[in-house]
Amino acid sequence: MGYDNRLPDYESFLEFEEVYLRAVALAWTDEDFKEKLLSDAESAIEQYFNYRCPWSLDIQVREVNEKEIELGAGWHPPAEGRQGFWKLPKDTFYYRLPPKPDTIDPEEEPIALAAYNDSGPTYLFTCC
Question: Across the strands, what pairs with 76?
Answer without folding.
Answer: 85
